[in-house]
Design a protein that fits this description.
heterodimer, A: alpha+beta, Aldehyde Oxidoreductase, domain 4, seven-stranded mixed β-sheet, six-stranded mixed β-sheet, 28% helix, 24% strand, B: alpha+beta, Uridine Diphospho-n-acetylenolpyruvylglucosamine Reductase, domain 3, Enolase-like, domain 1, 3 domains, five-stranded antiparallel β-sheet
Chain lengths: 739, 275
């Protein structure tokens, strides 16, 4: 029976359900030490002195002077030190590392750091340091605006968001002689991570070791959402430095507070739109300005910005577009990868703006989207001509029909409920020429019963092992159970690139499929067992091959930004409590076109989970920064949605195959989080609350401008507004505005 | 976990008498039971105390029983005990409603009424109920028992009249004859800390208490007096707004708390059939 398209058992299901799966904190080694990170407590300045106010006997102590290689977290830019030397750019910047065999003594060790503080900057618009600027130009903006009947402008703001994987960051570093490199001092690092080869590179640069002296092994990982894309390179570096100095294994596990205070978050952003439209709703010009707050170091800001600006004009046809994006430095912990990677920020702005355009023209929001939605043959902002796998209108029409959107919208008018929608898309794989640069490899080893998959793609809960095994099983023509999946261990698997960017199925899955095709051809009529007896071991390795019809010019930002796009439409109905301004999503329908659902249940899980995370982004999740420090860095006060905060999520999956994807599959991991926030804000607008900022907490909804004069405020209060002479100031509508 | 535990000492009494003696002879000790608040600060690295008195095993303090027409609830009754008590369900349903909205199941199984009161957070969810119901706090020490009206129990932010040698052993709650009302407004639909929490009953006259709008839970004597003398809902809202002193913090704003408290009052009074 074929595996693709069926809900086969997860490869990692039994071990996770029974508790047999071993996460990083489940592992231990003889002579293990525990590591602790001493961090800055100021947002900007210099280190003036370090005082160790404890008995240092039995401690291993590491600072930047112990680094044999380069003191950087190697990624894109070389600006972030692994351990601060003098300059401090953010709160929780690592300065000193301690290790001890006894956790209690480690916790009790008192280190005092003296500083010369300087003035921090928290305003990305006022920053003196720009990490990256990108401009996308299509057509002639002046001509576009000249053709417009109306110009609609708007400014939209999005906040930080914490990934909040269940398992915090953690690693164990084990130094030689048991490790690679023998007595010469190689190192093995086990850890919770998305990208073993990113960690591998960072460690070779930090320790100045040859590639084959460093081995990175992913342990079972309790979620990532992008939060374990770049940060594991930092914590792995710390454990490695301690382990090399102590010549003993070192374990560093963050608790939730440290994880929230020190590690990356989603970039906050300010996005401005100026749009030319004709009277009948056609987009003639889109001028978009994107500003992302990168935090203290560049990390992945340049590529987050790239994905952000490419998605900034939404899934819409327009001949004249200019998108200008920049990511700047502020004195907060670096922002980084988070599911969606820039696209949730920019598409939030686009989709709220589209509803405001519809309002300005007195048109139906569905109609404005339908007129402008990209069709096969249209070109995107970067000039990419879309093929038949463009499904923007199909998802819109399906979502509208299923929810009876237009009738429902009329029916709810005047109530404390509103209904809103969002139309969005998401490019699968690395942006532009990224996949060519990565040159990812995947391999397949023949086994007695079938084959073993050798990829660096990590299972982080999303179903990598299962989905890859399905693709290989069907291509090779063997049962799903006959496919094994190797651990993501750089000592055993080739570099398949990072597990990010909705690329694990579409890109790595396709390379694996090519391995399986080749292997099947070599087997001919033989069973795997017969082949092994006759010819000995067989390992087929393939590298990414760029489809010939994809072109990209990075200098002009023109061409095929992504091999393919997924398309989706969310419809959400929100109820606003008349007394508390709490907005509760009461119905949620999402239509996702993803090429091919390799494993429908897992794909649906991705869509439901991403939608729930998007609802949190829209309404609840608020990172409160005070003096550059996350003030609510604990689960008590950084709240994410519970099942009582999310409605039943109706998921509809459409399949319009991508010709270069395995069995037609596109990416699915990130797209679901792009749509909920604008759909919720549009629903709130329909309910009478005009917001342009998320999270839309009840406090913000309370202060929102009324979307139209007829719209209602909570009834009891309206009464007192009329009856009370002093209610103006009391209710905050007068001059006494808080803050 | 950021707080180390090896430098802390735990006393394990076998009876209430034992516990009170330890408090007198070994004090000061921090009483602990469900630890649902204590462990948060231990985990966060902010727990300074080093000597603790574990009350969890003192089952005698877990009783929920009739007391005249009212109810007596032992300090160690957990939120789950209270939610499941038929007596509470019948005589003090607003307390069961409050317990139901505290934390998740695990917290409800461990957290105690006495702990919620002793922790003295102005956001404690059971506190407005005890205040509105005119509960009496029963305090015990090696020297004897004293009874303090709940409304006189707190003296300021996280401060109370309880002496270091005393334990809360029970709450005596007189009969509530009229309707009862409870509403919690948290940062999400469940498992959240209150931004505003209100309890009310309308015995012979309305009694209203609000949490998270000042340094302690508060009764609203002026609002109650106004209502008793026939004030409209709109007038009562204005009096309430003058009577509370909310602040901006991590979870909400003073303005939001003020406006929501006024709205909740109006909602409650409307449900009580006032106009």
């Amino acid at each position: 029976m074929r595996a693709v398209g069926r809900n086969v058992l997860r490869k990692d299901g039994v071990s996770k359900v029974t508790g047999a799966a071993r996460y990083i904190d489940d592992l231990t080694f003889p002579n293990l030490l525990y590591g602790r990170t001493i961090r800055s407590t100021i947002p900007a300045g210099e280190i003036a002195g370090v005082h160790l106010n404890f008995d240092t006997a039995g401690f291993t102590i590491v600072d930047y002077r112990d680094i044999a290689g380069r003191n950087i977290v190697a990624l894109i830019e070389d600006d972030q030190p692994c351990l601060a030397e003098r300059e401090i750019r953010h709160v929780a910047e690592p300065i000193l590392l301690l290790a001890h065999a006894d956790r209690e003594r480690l916790l009790a060790a008192d280190v005092q750091i003296d500083y010369r503080a300087s003035t921090p900057n928290y305003d990305p618009a006022a920053s003196a340091i720009t990490f990256k600027t990108i401009t996308i130009d299509k057509g002639d903006l002046d001509r576009g605006f000249a053709a417009a009947d109306r110009i609609v402008e708007g400014e939209y703001r999005v906040g930080h968001q914490e990934q909040l994987y269940i398992e915090p960051n953690g690693v164990i570093a084990v130094p030689g002689p048991d490790g690679p490199g023998g007595d010469e001092g190689g190192i093995v690092i086990y850890g919770s991570m998305q990208c073993p080869y990113y960690v591998h590179r960072a460690i070779t640069v930090l320790l100045d070791l040859p590639d084959d002296h460093v081995r990175i092994i992913q342990t079972e990982t309790g979620g990532g959402f992008g939060g374990k894309e770049e940060y594991p390179s930092m914590i792995a570096g710390h454990a490695a430095l301690l382990a090399r100095k102590a010549r003993r294994p070192v374990k560093i596990i963050y608790d939730r507070v440290e994880d929230m205070l020190a590690t990356t978050k989603r970039h906050p952003g300010i996005i401005r739109h100026r749009t030319g439209v004709t009277r009948d709703g056609r987009l003639t010009a889109m001028e978009i300005d994107v500003l992302l707050d990168g935090g203290a170091y560049a990390t992945l800001s340049a590529v987050v910005l790239s994905r952000g600006v490419i998605h900034a004009s939404g899934p819409y046809r327009c001949d004249h577009i200019r998108v200008r994006g920049r990511a700047t430095m502020t004195n907060t912990p670096p922002n980084g990868a988070f599911r969606g990677f820039g696209a949730p920020q920019t598409q939030f702005a686009t989709e709220v703006h589209m509803d405001r355009i519809a309002d300005a023209l007195g048109l139906d929001p569905v109609r404005v989207r339908d007129i402008n939605a990209l069709r096969p043959g249209d070109t995107t902002a970067t000039g990419q001509r879309l093929g038949r796998d463009c499904s923007a209108r199909q998802v819109l029409r399906e979502a509208v029909a299923r929810t009876d959107f237009t009738r429902r919208r009329k029916a709810l008018a005047g109530s404390n409920r509103g209904i809103g929608l969002s139309l969005f898309f998401h490019g699968s794989g690395f942006t532009g020429g990224g996949e060519v640069k990565l040159a990812s490899k995947a391999a397949l080893a023949l086994t007695e019963r079938g084959a073993r998959i050798l990829v660096a793609s990590t299972e982080i809960g999303q179903g990598t092992r299962t989905m890859h095994a399905q693709i290989v099983a069907d291509t090779l023509g063997v049962p799903y159970d006959c496919i094994d999946v190797n651990a993501a261990d750089t000592g055993e698997v080739p570099n398949s690139g990072p597990t990010v960017a909705s690329r694990t199925c579409m890109i790595v899955g396709r390379i694996l499929q090519r391995c399986a095709e080749d292997m099947r051809a070599r087997l001919g009529a033989m069973t795997p067992r017969q082949y092994l007896r006759a010819h000995g071991p067989l390992v087929v390795t393939k590298e990414y091959e760029k489809p010939s019809d994809i072109t990209w010019d990075d200098s002009s930002y023109r061409g095929d930004a992504y091999g393919s796009y997924g398309w989706a439409c969310d419809v959400v109905e929100v109820e606003v409590d008349r007394d508390t301004w709490q907005a509760t999503p009461v119905a949620f329908t999402t239509v996702h076109e993803i090429g091919k659902a390799i494993h429908p249940m897992l794909a649906k899980g991705q869509i439901e989970g991403g939608s729930a995370q998007g609802i949190g982004y829209a309404l609840i999740e608020e990172v409160v920064m005070r003096d550059g420090r996350m003030a609510n860095g604990q689960l008590t006060n950084y709240t994410i949605p519970t099942t009582l905060d999310t409605p039943a999520i109706e998921v509809v999956m459409l399949e319009n195959p991508y010709k270069h994807g395995p069995f037609g599959a596109k990416g699915v991991g990130e797209m679901p989080i792009d749509g909920p926030a604008p759909a919720v804000i549009n629903a709130l607008r329909h309910a009478g609350f005009d917001l342009r900022e998320i999270p839309a907490t009840p406090e913000k909804i309370m202060r929102a401008r009324s979307a139209s004069p007829e719209q209602r405020r909570p009834s009891a209060e309206r009464e007192s507004l009329r009856s009370s002479a002093r209610s103006g100031s009391e209710l905050g509508v007068g001059p006494q505005r808080a803050k | 976990m950021r707080g180390s535990i090896s430098n802390r000492r735990l006393f394990e009494p076998r009876s209430l008498r034992d516990a009170l003696r330890m408090l007198r002879d070994e004090g000061p000790l921090v009483p602990m039971a469900g630890c649902t608040d204590l462990y948060v600060s231990l985990n966060f690295g902010t727990l300074k105390d080093t000597r603790f008195l574990n009350l969890w095993r003192l089952d005698a303090l877990r009783k929920i029983e009739t007391r005249g027409a009212g109810v007596s609830i032992g300090a160690l009754a957990t939120h789950t005990n209270i939610m499941r008590s038929a007596l509470v369900g019948k005589r003090l349903p607003m307390l069961a409603a409050a317990c139901r909205e505290i934390g998740g199941v695990q917290i409800q199984n461990r957290g105690t009424l006495g702990g919620n009161v002793a922790n003295a957070s102005p956001a404690g969810d059971t506190l407005p109920v005890l205040a509105a119901a005119d509960a009496v706090v029963v305090l015990a020490s090696a020297g004897g028992i004293r009874r303090v009206p709940f409304t006189a129990f707190y003296t300021g932010y996280r401060r109370s009249v309880m002496r270091p040698d005393e334990l809360i052993v029970a709450f005596d709650i007189p009969a509530v004859h009229g309707r009862q009302w409870f509403r919690k407004v948290g940062t999400r639909a469940a498992q959240a800390i209150s931004k505003v929490v209100m309890a009310a009953c309308d015995d012979d006259r309305p009694r209203i208490a609000v949490g998270s709008v000042g340094p302690t839970v508060v009764r609203l004597p002026r609002t109650e007096a106004a209502l008793a003398s026939g004030a409209s809902i709109a007038d009562a809202r204005r009096t309430l707004v003058d009577e509370i002193t909310p602040i901006d913090d991590l979870r909400s704003t003073a303005e939001y708390r003020r406006r929501v408290a006024a709205n909740l009052l109006a909602r409650c009074l409307t449900e009580f059939g006032m106009s």
